[in-house]
Each structure stands twice: as C-alpha cells, then as structure tokens.
Amino acid sequence: MCYKMLNNYEWVKTKIFKVSSINSFCGFLKFVLSKLLCGRREHSGLCDRLTSSKMPQKKRAIIFTVVMCFNLCGVAAQDTATFAIKDDRQLKMTIYQADNQNRQPETIIYMFGGGFYTGSRNGERAVEYCKKMQERGFTTVSIDYRLGIVSDDTTKAKVNASISEFENAMRIAVEDLSSAVVFLINNGQKWGIDKDKIIITGCSAGAVTALNADYCHANGSKWTEELPEDFRFYGVMAYAGAIFSRNGKVKWSKHSPAPTMLYHGTKDKTVIYGSIQFGLLGFFGTNSLAKRFKKYDYPVKIRRFIGAEHEVSSFGNIYVEDAIFFIENWLRKGKQWISDENFSITKQ
Fold first, then answer.
1. Does one domain contain both 316 and 182?
2. 214 in helix, strand or coil?
3. DSSP-derived secondary structure for 56-79
4. Are residues 22 and 97 in the same domain?
5. Residue 157 near residue 117 (C-beta atoms within 8 A)
6. The domain boundary residue, chosen from 73, 98, 118
7. Order of strands across the sheet with 275-278?
8. Full residue range of the structural domain in which residue 275 is found
C-alpha cells in the first residue's frame, strides 16, 4: 500500500526501499515528517497545514502517506519525563511505550538494583529488561530513585551501612516509587497507561523496594502516604527481594497484598533468602514470605533456585515468558493460585 501511494515520488521511493528493516523504515518516515513540518516557522496545527492552500499538493500527499504508514507500522516509542524534584534533584522516568498493534493492558514499573548505593534507570540490565517487555507489548517504565547509602568506598558501603541507613534508604526509595506511581496516575493517559493495571518489579534493591511499597501501602505506612487510599498495585514481581518490618512477622492489616511473584536463590548472601530478626525488627526474604502468603491464602508464585546465590536477581531478564505467564493467570484471570517450585542450578 505504501509503495503504491509513494510511487509517483521517485526520490521518496528510492530512499525508503534502501532501508533494510521495518524499524529503520519507520524511523525514516519519522525523519521525513519532522523535516516537512519543522520547515516552517508558524505554529499552526497539522490539520491546518494539510488543508492550507499554501502547502504544495505534493508535500501534502507525502505527509498523509507518512501518517498512514505510522498507523500501519505501529511504531514503539520511548519517552522521558521528570516525575518529581527531591533534595534538589530531578527524578526522571524512561517510558518504553509498546506499539499499538501489540499493546498489552498492563504497565510495568521497573526498579533497578544496586544495594541502594549504586545503579541507574538507564543501566544495561534495566534497559534490556524494559526493551524485552516492550517487545512483548508491555509499556514499561524505568524510574530514578534516590540512593540512600552514601560512601566514598562503594565496595564497602553495603557492609558498613547501619540498620538505620538501610531503613532510610528503603524509605526514600519507596517514597520515590510512590511519587512515580502518582505521576503516572495523573499523567499516564499520554502513554495509554491504565492506572488500575500498574505492576511493580525490580531486582535486588529494586525488588526490596517493590515488595516494601506494596507492603507499606497495605499497612497504611507513611512511606506510601502519597498514594491514593483506594489505589492498589495490580501485581508485584520481585527478583531477590525481601520485606523490612519493625512490627515482627510480616502481616497485612489494611488490605491484602497484590498477587506476587518471588524469585530467589537459596544461598543468596546479599539479600537474605530466609529471615533475620531482632525482637520486632526483621528482614524477611522469600522463604519466610512464602510461609506468610500460604498461611493467609494469598495468591503467590514462588521459584526457589536451589544452591543459587544473588545471580537470581538478574533472572527477570532471562525468564521473561514466566513473568508473562504470571501476568496472564494470576493477574488477568485472577487465579488464586499458590505455586511453589524448586529449580536446580548447575554452576560451571
């Protein structure tokens, strides 16, 4: 169709059919459109331009063709927005918007890992994850959050950080995630985001943040007071995460947790797989959380990787289809399943 419509303009046809891939083709169309529309100084709308008698017929026809091709190609987009300013720092998000033809109804917010002292929303693992989910039709949002553990020697930051520093780091990360969610609730229409279908996920410190955000909101904590009271996370996917509590064993008082997927290595020495507790103060990993979910019959999908350590935090980038299975069944179909699987890891 595009070929026939452009057939009369040899310079366009020649340029387009030198392009080897559909993504490059769509990129070229975007380039043509921007050049045609940005060539004038006036700020009239596209429709005004197209209907203007001043615009040559040939130019008008090309713009119509480009717009139609965009609709046919369903180009996936990427955008950046500032969602908050805290401590004199702009907190930004990168939105990987799925194309119209393949779009799924859920939006996934990704939290990078790094022990609360390092990491970036644009880090290699974050970008890879977001693009993989985008390719499968999910609008995915990678966000900044403030790093609460500061040290001149980052290799010793995690070891030397006190409990109060860790708690503060988790608090500000959860607060920043809450701010990002509120921003998407208020502005997400621009990217086709359904505020009732927001999933949070992350690896390592990002997984800790995701789990604690849902836990705090379910218990009316000040950490998530920015979230609307009637808001609920659609789902949580945690790759090597844990929940922090100052009130003893994990329990949900105001409302139940979102359906949750937990990945963890049984020998993880970075984010605890079991639990550690001093009086009412505790940090509860997947093994401990599994017992609590089962006790209260909350829907959960657990994968324990026997003998694995913290490398499981990267498995979100590997077991993509398992995440989609979780979304399709636990979330869309509302299955109240409790699934607990063991997987063996063979190390080279």
1. yes
2. helix
3. -HHHHHHHHHHHHHHHHHT--EEE
4. no
5. yes
6. 73
7. 243-245, 281-284, 275-278
8. 77-344
**C-alpha distance from residue 69 to each of 3, 25, 33, 66 (Å):** 10, 10, 11, 5
The pTM assigned to this predicted structure is: 0.79
For the segment 125-175, what is each residue's pLDDT rounded down to a tens digit?
Answer: 999 999 999 999 999 999 999 999 986 655 554 555 788 999 999 999 999
- State the average pLDDT over residues 63-85: 68
Tell me how far the alpha carbon of residue 260 is from its chain's centroid.
15
Rounded Cα–Cα distance for residues 34 and 192 (Å): 23
Between the CA atoms of 255, 256, 260 and 264, what dihedral angle is there, to the nearest 10 degrees?
100
Among 58, 73, 88, which residue terminates a domain?
Answer: 73
Of the candidates 22, 34, 23, 24, the one whose C-alpha atom is nearest the C-alpha of residue 62 is 34
- 259 residue type, one letter: P
* Beta bridge partner(s), residue 90: 85
Distance CA 180, CA 157 (A): 26
Q: Give yes or no for a contact between 312 and 347, defined as CB atoms under 8 angstroms apart.
A: no
My answer on whether 133 and 156 are in the same domain is: yes
Distance between CA atoms of 200 and 237, rounded to whole angstroms?
6
**Tell me, what DSSP letter sits at residue 34?**
H
118 and 176, same domain (yes or no):
yes
> Hunting for tokens 């080279």 — which residue is that?
348
Report yes or no: 80 and 122 within 8 Å, Cβ to Cβ. Answer: no
Coil, helix or strand for 307?
coil
Q: What is the CATH number of the domain that holds 220?
A: 3.40.50.1820
Pair 100, 74: CB distance under 8 Å: yes
Other Cβ atoms within 10 Å of 108 Cβ, number: 25
pLDDT of residue 72: 44
Confidence of residue 230 (pLDDT cuts 50, 70, 90): very high
